[in-house]
Amino acid sequence: MTILLVIVALVVVFAIVAALQPSKFRIARSILVAAPPAVAFAQVDDFRIWPAWSPYEKLDPNLQRRYEGPAIGEGAIYDWTGNKDAGEGRATVLESRPGERMRIQLAFRKPFQATNIAEFAFKPVGDKTEVTWSMSGEKSFMFKAVGLFMNMEQVLGAQFEDGLRQLKSIAEGQARA
Length: 177
Known about the structure:
Blueprint (H helix, E strand, L loop, with lengths): L1 H18 L4 E10 L3 H9 L18 E5 L8 E5 L6 E10 L3 E10 L3 E12 L2 E11 L2 H7 L4 H25 L1
Antiparallel strand pairs: 1-7, 2-3, 3-4, 4-5, 5-6, 6-7
């Protein structure tokens, strides 16, 4: 009986600690790219070229992609279905200011349901461009609980850094051409 009470107490304490975690999150990473903002922005503006730089595109070699709406800019839609690592979801461009900023609504369906906002910002820094990739949203109770054991800032941040390095390589190659 004592063991059962201890287990129940631990579960209750865990639930309280998880529930008290912040309800919102924002993860952001930046990189300096030796290319004009328009060249860096072009890598993000068209979902069809994301496989060249996005780390998420590499999670499933058989990823199924579907595109709707305009090819670039506001209203462009990218729907994906993949394995357990890539999941399933939809990305919709909400705002597109060429060479400056792009806001995307990410609606994840699998392996979990969530709606977040991804943003790409392009800031001139001398003859280079600072590219910032961020994602923000609400944390469900499940994400708060998982966050007690896994540092999502570190995991997603590392993926953003990988994608930004790939984007940098492509943009700088195009700027030199």
